[in-house]
Structure formats: structure tokens, C-alpha cells
Design goal:
By secondary structure, the chain is an alpha/beta fold. The chain is 37% helix and 18% strand. The strands form four sheets. A seven-stranded mixed beta sheet has the order 6-5-4-7-10-15-16. Strands 11-8-9-14 form a four-stranded mixed beta sheet, covered by helices on one side. The chain binds 5-S-methyl-1-O-phosphono-5-thio-D-ribulose. 5-S-methyl-1-O-phosphono-5-thio-D-ribulose binds next to α2 and β9.
């Protein structure tokens, strides 16, 4: 298990070279290697190839990509639509682009526009770090009370078991993470927890990224195959499910990595709480309903046919696991209906997954409908 000091920041703007450094997440956990982004093209490529991934980080990378474009004299509309086409599901991408478009609106041409875009991209990154920190605090309170209740029911209990899907840690955001932020905070406060990590085929973000993050911070965890969750729930080995979101509709439906919906169904069947952690930037306030309405990214069939890993000599390899010519389909995300969700953990507290809960989170609304 990797124990070398980790950067804990997935994206860094370097003013001296006017460039952005990212971690190439396609090489983890086998290699920790950085890539420098200096142009619109670099940013698009990093998002498309999933060197950067995770809804908030995709948005932040797109913001820097738009800055590079304006600095290099590429027209705003063209740059924005090129970036928007890189990955269709995570709404943070479009949200970030809109934020930058508004920030540069009315600026003089040239350097003034680019300077405003850079300021906004850095602001967006700082806001995401703060939001994830606050999500961590609210989620920690929740995990603490779940642990207290469990100990009351069973004074012999030794740990709180959390099941998570995909990667929702600091790699996927500016800092901390979404669903992993409460886990990091609860662990730091001494709550004895253990995380079941779904491997998350086909890209295996659970196996390669979440285990790497948790291992580096010594958070107890076990990697499981994607279909083990339901069985573990029936065996009483799961106390709560905690996942992230790529897009949350105005009625509280949540779109997240493929396989999330099945975990929510199993949790409901076993009377277990199912929470989603997300910054408000992940809410699509203009989309009334999520099921059937969110564009689901369909990725290459190659990802289904092949697995990537290292061989005994430590060389990165791809191997095929299906017959040549076998047809395959690869939807990247699914939608969990609001009725299966116990609550949304946001930077503004824990809210109901419902139209009322989402309306209270609208940026124009203050006040609280926390649960
Ligand atoms: O395809 P990915 O790796 O970008 O998918 C990431 C997820 O599905 C996460 O759960 C999601 O972005 C929310 S948490 C950052």
C-alpha cells in the first residue's frame, strides 16, 4: 500500500508558469504522476481521458480550460461549447462554464477578459474546497449520531460500517471530497469506522482510487466486488451507504456512477439509511425530474471488455476478459429516485431529497429546511 506523502490537492494553478498541474488519475494507484495543462486542448483532453474526473474536479478543470482559451484568443462561445461536449453527465461542468461566462460578461477584450476568467476559476476552486470541508462537518455529525445509536442498540459493537461507491474523495474535488469528507473527519475524531469500497467497474475508481486515498490516511476499509453490497447488507454488515452525485434534479433524484441505484434499492430493502453528499454546484435546479431526463454518458465498450492493472513485473497492462467480437454496452451513470434517499448532505446542512429540500438550497434562498 502506498505510504509516501500525498499532495491532497488534485489540481494546482502555478502562477509562475501560468499553468495547471493535475494528477494523472488513470495511472493510480500504480504511479503518482503529474501532468501540466496549459491550453484549452490540454484541459479537454484531461477531462475526456479521465486524467481528471469526479463532478467538482471536472468543473474546476473546465474553468481553467476556459481561462486558457480566452488568454490565447479563442472565442468564448467556441471554447465553452468544446469544453461542454467533453463529458455530458456531471452538471458541474456546465455550471462552471456559466459562472465564467457571467464573470467575463462586459469585460474589455483581451487581457481583461482573461484576468477575470482566471480570478473566477481560482474562486470556484476555493469555494469547492470550502464546500467539501463543510460537507465533511455536517456528514461527520450524522455519522457520529449513527455510531451513538448503534452503540446504544449493541454495546458490543466495534465499528460503524459504511458502504461507498466510486471515488468521492479529494481526488474528485478541490479538497476533502464529497462522500469521503465525513469519513475522513469521523476517522480523525476517533469514531471506529470501516468502509466497504465497491470496486466500481468498468473504470474501477473504487478499487484504484478510493482504496488508495483511504489507505494513505489509514482509514480501515475492505475492497468488495460490485455485487457484494446487497449480501453484506442482509448480513448486518452495513450500517449506512454514503455516495456522491454527478447531477441532482430539482425533485431530489440523484445521478451518480453506474451501480449506485442498485445499492439504494438494496439499502431500502434492508431498512438502511442511504445518504448522498454533494456540493450545491451539483444541483441542476432547471431539471424538474432526474429519472429518464439526465443525459447519461455512454462510454467505449472497450472499458467493459478490458481490465487494466499491473502484472507481476509491475508493468501496466490491459487484458481482455470477453470473447473477440462480443457486443457490449457501457452506460456510465444511473439515477437513484429521491424516494430511496434518506438525505442530501450539502455544505448548507443535511436536506431532504425532495422538491422542498432542493428549493431550500437554491442560491437565491437563505433559510433552512434541514432534517
Ligand atoms: O466517471 P467519474 O469517475 O467522473 O465519476 C465520478 C462519480 O460518479 C462520483 O461519484 C461523482 O463525481 C460524485 S463525487 C465527486
Amino acid at each position: 500500500m502506498q505510504k509516501e506523502p500525498l499532495p491532497l490537492q488534485s489540481i494546482i494553478y502555478d502562477a509562475a508558469s501560468d499553468a495547471v498541474d493535475i494528477i494523472d488519475q488513470t495511472l493510480l494507484p500504480h504511479q503518482l504522476s503529474h501532468v501540466r495543462l496549459q491550453s484549452l486542448e490540454h484541459a479537454c483532453q484531461a477531462i475526456q481521458t479521465m486524467q481528471v474526473r469526479g463532478a467538482p474536479l471536472i468543473g474546476i478543470t473546465a474553468a481553467f480550460g476556459l481561462y486558457f482559451a480566452l488568454r490565447d484568443g479563442i472565442p468564448l462561445g467556441r471554447a465553452s461549447s468544446t469544453l461542454a461536449a467533453t463529458r455530458p453527465t456531471a452538471v458541474n461542468l456546465r455550471w462552471a462554464l456559466r459562472r465564467l461566462e457571467l464573470a467575463v460578461d462586459g469585460a474589455d477584450q483581451g487581457s481583461d477578459t482573461a484576468a477575470r476568467a482566471l480570478r473566477e476559476a481560482l474562486q470556484l476552486q476555493a469555494e469547492d474546497a470550502a464546500a467539501c470541508n463543510a460537507i465533511g462537518d455536517h456528514g461527520f455529525t450524522l455519522l457520529e449520531s449513527l455510531w451513538r445509536e448503534k452503540r446504544k442498540r449493541d454495546p458490543e459493537a466495534t465499528r460503524l460500517n459504511i458502504l461507498t461507491h466510486c471515488n468521492t474523495g479529494w481526488l474528485a474535488t478541490a479538497e476533502w471530497g464529497t462522500a469521503l469528507a465525513p469519513i475522513y473527519k469521523a476517522h480523525a475524531h476517533g469514531i471506529p469506522l470501516h468502509v466497504w469500497v465497491d470496486e466500481t467497474r468498468p473504470r474501477s475508481q473504487g478499487a484504484s482510487l478510493t482504496t488508495w486515498e483511504l489507505g494513505a490516511r489509514s482509514v480501515p476499509h475492505s475492497l468488495i466486488v460490485d455485487n457484494a453490497g446487497g449480501h453484506l447488507m442482509q448480513q448486518g454488515e452495513v450500517d449506512v451507504c454514503l455516495v456522491g452525485s454527478d447531477r441532482t434534479a430539482a425533485n431530489g433524484d440523484v445521478c451518480n456512477k453506474i451501480g449506485t441505484y442498485l445499492k439504494a434499492l438494496a439499502a431500502a430493502d434492508n431498512d438502511l439509511p442511504f445518504y448522498v453528499a454533494l456540493p450545491v454546484s451539483t444541483i441542476d435546479f432547471e431539471l424538474p425530474v432526474g429519472v429518464g431526463q439526465i443525459p447519461i454518458e455512454n462510454r467505449s465498450a472497450d472499458e467493459v471488455h478490458r481490465v487494466v492493472g499491473v502484472d507481476e513485473d509491475g508493468r501496466l497492462r490491459q487484458v481482455r476478459i470477453s470473447p473477440e467480437g462480443c457486443p457490449a454496452d457501457n452506460p456510465g451513470f444511473d439515477v437513484t429516485p429521491a424516494r430511496l434517499i434518506s438525505g442530501l448532505i450539502t455544505e448548507r446542512g443535511v436536506h431532504e431529497a425532495s422538491a422542498a429540500g432542493i428549493a431550500a438550497l437554491h442560491p437565491d434562498r437563505s433559510g433552512s429546511s434541514e432534517i
